[in-house]
Amino acid sequence: MTENESNSEGLMERQTTGEDRVRMVARQLSDPQTANWIASEAGWSHEPTKRVLERLVDDGILHRDESGTHTTYYPDYRRQAMQEAMRLRDSGHTVEELTDRLADMKTQIRDWEDEFGVESPNQLRGTLADESLDGDEEDRRREIAREWEHLQRRIQIVGFAIREWDFLAPTTEPAEASS
């Protein structure tokens, strides 16, 4: 960890409450996680973390899954996608700039498909079984697989923002209810 990362973590802990940190961690989840994991990431104890998570579930911000051996929490991915699409719409970028960004992401994925002769991040992970790969190449492929999955999610959100560009425009007048 660099000195800047250490200072930034210390700054986060000094300027936020435990509840704030739990909320920040919970909203950034990309995979379901346990209350213990979230508490650890937030640097706060288990019981108060669990109370905050339950409030977030009650508020519809998180979902709780009790089907496995441990209860996990995950954000409402639809809500996250809609909020991100609105942020993209409000960011000052034009629809053309977002279209260019979308094309760049798709090109990157096609380049990986061509380079490795695979069609998905998991197929790329499957190439790690090749005994001729050295450790650096294995690490590179793992990182590319993670980035590939990230780009797939971004493509969906950016594509949605482009398709719904007019709908996502900020309004200055309250919507009128039809009678």
UniProtKB/TrEMBL annotation:
SUPFAM superfamilies: Winged helix' DNA-binding domain. InterPro entries: DUF7342, WH_DNA-bd_sf. It comes from the Archaea. Residues 1-20 are annotated as: Disordered. This is Uncharacterized protein. It comes from Haloarchaeobius iranensis.
